[in-house]
Amino acid sequence: MTKKYVGQNISKVDAKAKVTGKADYPQDLKFDNYLNVKIKRAPYPHAILKSIDLKQAKKVDGVVDIITGQDYPDLNKFGLIIKDQPVLIGIGEKMRFLGDALAIVIAESEEAAFKARDKISLEIEKLKVISDPFNAIKKDAPAIHDDIELCTDYISQDIGKQNILVDHYLKKGDINKGFKEADLIVENTYQTQHIDQLPLQNEAGYAVYDQYTEILKIWAASQWLHDTQADVAQALNLNKDKVRIIQTAIGGAFGKKEDISVHLHLALAAMHTKRPVKLVYTREESMISQSKRHPLTIKAKTGVTEDGYLTAWQVEVFGDTGAYASSGPAVVHKGMYHCTGPYNVANVKGVSYAIYTNNTYGGAMRGFGTTQMAFAYESQIDIIADKLGMDPAQFRYQNAYDTNSTTPNGQRLSKSVNTKRTIEEAVKLSNWKGESEK
Amino acid sequence: MEIKLTVNNEKRKVNVKPHTRLIDLLREDLGLTGTKEGCGKGECGACTVLMDNKVVTSCLVLAVQADGSEILTIEGLETKDKLHPIQQAFIDTGAVQCGYCIPGMIISSKKLIDQNLNPSDDQIKRALSGNICRCTGYVKIVDAVKQAAHEIKSGVK
């Protein structure tokens, strides 16, 4: 049988459009008579908005209108898993990070929109900024969200739970038995940092509202087309069948375009002006207002026998989920499930916390929490191998997953378990001859 | 102010503001949206074009600085529905992923191949060092440049 696709080189269907410059990313579209939109964002990461003065901004030549929360008081919050992010911060409401939107500026030119944005004057009441998750879980830390139901029932009495969005627990085997069987116990704390996914194409889009059919169309690069459609509809109190999200070419995303970005503000601007509207983020704006890879603090305690077999692995994972939930509850949870990496450990115990802070929110990025964990478990493995005086390749190999291994959350790996073969290949390709000869 | 320049072999007259950037002139005034903006700071190379046969990041060039110059953008490579060999090589080697960096990559590659039909890996990497691909497809991009150079060389003979 000839194989039509498998084993053949198949050209990407859109490659020709992309090498000729004809592929349309959202910022490449052009609608007749369109208006430019810019967003006034929070000047301080944690503050109450006392007042907005638009007088000077509205005087800028070319400004069509400026929308604030006062114009649309009935908007609902949005978010991928938990609806905790406001579309616009209203008077008397709280901004929780520098990306929060305070006003939508609509103008005939991009230049006028920028100029007007910078002429909006604000009165704010600054609150204590919490940029470290360990300060957020102090008992006397102020609650960043006081109107969200937190899912934390089992927190230890020693820490404040007012900023813990969600906690997760993991148990496999008997951790105490595992540590008893160990000849060596190694404890370390690992810290990772914020990383931006940095797709080359910044968030951008167009929206068009047809007032006769009441259909709202949004052209943007999105990773969750139908989730975005549903979330836009619920946030704006529209029926889902009136919202169309139209996918353009996507200039990279890597998780960053799972969250809503330009969509809601474009929708409001289009419905408000009845004209096509365009919003393109600058790189700075993309970095400040859209998701990041979560910084995780990972406390790992590992037990091992003197002949180099892992017996126990305990972790505490603290995820800085920033100002809003985004994918945070799932990322931090999934990260913990990967605490032992591809190594067999019979006794595992873990707890993880997704913690609100006033930082830019953490969300999805390639690996969804597992890359941070890899830094911790692979470092832990190297440190233990060194303490045991064992070759780190051999130490990995003898603990590596095989068919019928079980993961920390109890999943039996029934097929395609290639950890050992991967180690063999890596040893071969790198010409690894052991620690002493490196 | 009015400036005159040649873009992809066509003479153009454009009215620009003193602060209009070359990228805005190309994308907004001439509708040549194949040139992309990634950072606006000359770091990513998505906006790379040739100006008087020199590689420039068009976000860092003012339109008035391009007065009287000759500009080549991605749209200027194709001839009569036939792709330039570099464009074809990028398709054939699977070097295109999200595609946003590709116009800049191809322009930088063209400058290299115009000068050197037998570039080494290191020379290719150096020539493309100003162009970032965030899908991290550099291996295939280097393959594409090598293939294109080879094909152009064979064609010349």
Could you list some keywords that capture this structure?
heterodimer; A: 438 residues; alpha+beta; Aldehyde Oxidoreductase, domain 4; seven-stranded mixed sheet; five-stranded mixed sheet; 15 strands; globular; B: 157 residues; Ubiquitin-like (UB roll); DNA polymerase, domain 1; 2 domains
Give a description of the structure:
- The complex is a heterodimer of chains A (438) and B (157).
- Chain A is an alpha+beta fold and 438 residues long.
- Chain A has a domain at 164-195 and 292-437: 2-Layer Sandwich (Aldehyde Oxidoreductase, domain 4).
- Chain A contains 12 helices and 15 strands.
- In chain A, strands 3-5-1-12-9-10-11 form a 7-stranded mixed beta sheet, sandwiched between helices.
- In chain A, helix 9 (328-337) links the parallel strand 14 (310-322) and strand 15.
- The longest helix of chain A has 19 residues, at 370-388.
- The radius of gyration of chain A is 25 Å and the shape is globular.
- The longest helix of chain B is centred in the last third of the chain and has 19 residues, at 138-156.
- Chain B is an alpha+beta fold and 157 residues long.
- Chain B has helices at residues 22-29, 85-92, 102-115, 121-127, 138-156, and strands at residues 2-7, 10-15, 48-51, 54-57, 70-72.
- Chain B folds into 2 domains: 2-76, Beta-grasp domain (Ubiquitin-like (UB roll)); 85-156, [2Fe-2S]-binding domain (DNA polymerase, domain 1), CATH 1.10.150.120.
- Chain B starts with a strand and ends with a helix.
- In chain B, a hairpin with a 2-residue loop joins strand 1 (2-7) and strand 2.
- Chain B is globular, with a radius of gyration of 15 Å.
- The model of chain B has no long low-confidence stretch (mean pLDDT 96).
- In chain B, strands 2-1-5-3-4 form a 5-stranded mixed beta sheet, sandwiched between helices.
- The A-B interface holds A 9, 11-12, 14-25, 27-28, 30, 197-202, 249-254, 282-283 and B 27, 31-41, 44, 46, 73-75, 77-78, 83, 87-88, 90-92, 94, 96-103, 106, 132-135.
